[in-house]
Every structure is written in C-alpha cells, then in structure tokens.
C-alpha cells in the first residue's frame, strides 16, 4: 500500500501522553495523537470534528528514530490559579519536559493514495501554523520528505515496513554523517529504533494510550493502540543517500 513519508525535525519537540496539572511529560518519539493533531492543523480541521479526526487516526503509523533526542525540562509560571473552591488565587510553577535535538521519520500507510496526496498538499500549504507539541516548537525543515532516490514524491508505493528499512537516513548534521561513514557497519552495525502500529493480538506488542477519539476541548478522549517496538539497521546505502 502507498505510504506518506514525513520528516519530524526541530531543535525542541514535545509529545505528551500523560500530562496532568503541574507536570507535562513527553514521549521519546511522536505519538499518534500528536501526528493526527499536526495533520488536522494542516487540513484546517476544527477540534470538534470527531469523524475527521478518527479518519486520520485510523491511518497506520510507524516511526523510525533517526536521532534519539535528549530529555530536557523547563519551568513555567501560571498566574491567578484558583483553589478547588475558586478562591485564594495564586501563582503556580509547572514543570514541562521536551526532547532536544531529536529527528524522526514518520510513515503513514493507507489504501487511499488520493487521501495521502491530500495530506501531502496540506503539509506543503497548511491551513494553520504547524508545530511539534508547543507553539514555540516549529519544524526546522519541510515536513514532507523525499522517497527513494528513484522517486520524486513523498508518497511512495512502498509498504510501510519497507520504507522504514530502506528510506535514506534523514540525518543532516555533517559530523554525525561523517562518523557513520567511518563506522565499521559490517562488524558493529548501528540500529535505528522503530515503533510500528500492530495487530493488538500479535505477540510482543505494547499499548500506547494516544489514539485520539476527540480533540473537543471540553471532553478530550483517547483509546489505546498496539505497537511493536523494534530496530532496523542503518545500512551504507541509507547513509550514502543524501538527507532529504
């Protein structure tokens, strides 16, 4: 089935899964709800359009970690916070986590190639500004990436798993690429972590509670999805191809 390939690259990213009150967490890779929210913003889908949100969520998704990020945190102050009785307003300090210097390849698979191309056009000309978890975290480069060297479209005919194994490495930092060029891949291969949507009845699956059912601010709701965490080797062919 056709696959849409996306480059998620920014100095800072945040993909919250259990954010509550004064502590705002982040996952170590893009979440399904985060990617769906990104696509919804590109398409101009309002928060209350549950049917359209679920259509996006039903796309099969995979993430390849081309550069693991570093977990960082900062502090924000929130003024005029009331207590449970609505009185005694105060200033609260919140701790917020984010990923620094992370890089991901995100693949979305669907039988409907026309729908994937609609998403591609929206990413090129988004209806609303795009960011990775917080408005202060915009993309560092265009989100639609390129397919294999023989292709000129971010929508590839490759199945999702094949794209993870063969798509050129997205790393664009010269010192990182130089290090891998000099690395002995035959004796000590480098492995890239992957997180792939899976059949919930398959073996070795993990549950992630990030499948969006509604983004309605008054009643946000999520379901669990099954994923398989694995690794693919960083091959010389992936390294030698230029980063998109």
Question: What does this entry look like structurally?
Answer:
Helix 1 (32-43) packs across helix 2 (50-57). Strands 1, 2, 3, 4, 5, 6, 7, 8 and 9 form a 9-stranded mixed β-sheet that branches. The protein has a single domain (3-72, 99-240), classed as Alpha-Beta Plaits. The two termini are 22 Å apart. A hairpin with a 6-residue loop joins strand 8 and strand 9. The chain has helices at residues 32-43, 50-57, 113-124, 160-166, 174-181, 236-240; strands spanning 3-13, 23-24, 60-67, 70-81, 90-109, 155-156, 191-197, 206-214, 221-233. The chain contains 6 helices and 9 strands; from the N terminus they run E-E-H-H-E-E-E-H-E-H-H-E-E-E-H. With 244 residues, it is α+β, with helices and mostly antiparallel strands.
Short description:
This protein has 244 residues and is α+β, with helices and mostly antiparallel strands.
- Output the structural class: alpha+beta
Q: What is the typical, i.e. mean, pLDDT?
A: 89
Largest sheet: number of strands, sense, barrel closure: 9 strands, mixed
Tally the helices: 6
């Amino acid at each position: 089935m056709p696959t849409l390939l996306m480059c998620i690259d920014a100095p800072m990213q945040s993909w919250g899964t259990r954010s509550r009150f004064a502590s705002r967490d982040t996952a170590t890779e893009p979440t399904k709800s985060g990617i769906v929210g990104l696509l919804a913003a590109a398409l101009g889908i309002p928060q209350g359009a549950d049917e359209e949100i679920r259509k996006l969520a039903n796309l099969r998704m995979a993430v390849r970690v081309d550069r693991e990020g570093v977990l960082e945190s900062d502090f924000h102050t929130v003024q005029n916070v009331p207590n449970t009785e609505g009185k005694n307003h105060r200033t609260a300090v919140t701790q917020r986590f984010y990923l620094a210097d992370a890089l991901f390849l995100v693949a979305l698979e669907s039988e409907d190639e026309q729908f994937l191309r609609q998403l591609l056009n929206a990413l090129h000309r988004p209806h609303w500004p795009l960011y990775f978890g917080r408005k202060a975290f915009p993309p560092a480069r265009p989100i639609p990436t390129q397919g294999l060297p023989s292709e000129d479209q971010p929508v590839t005919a490759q199945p999702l798993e094949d794209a993870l194994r063969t798509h050129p490495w997205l790393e664009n930092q010269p010192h990182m690429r130089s290090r891998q060029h000099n690395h002995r891949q035959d004796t000590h291969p480098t492995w890239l972590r992957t997180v792939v949507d899976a059949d919930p009845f398959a073996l070795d699956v993990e549950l992630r509670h990030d499948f969006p059912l509604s983004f309605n601010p008054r009643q946000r709701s999520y379901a669990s999805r099954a994923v398989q965490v694995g690794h693919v080797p960083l091959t010389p062919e992936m390294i030698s191809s230029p980063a998109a």
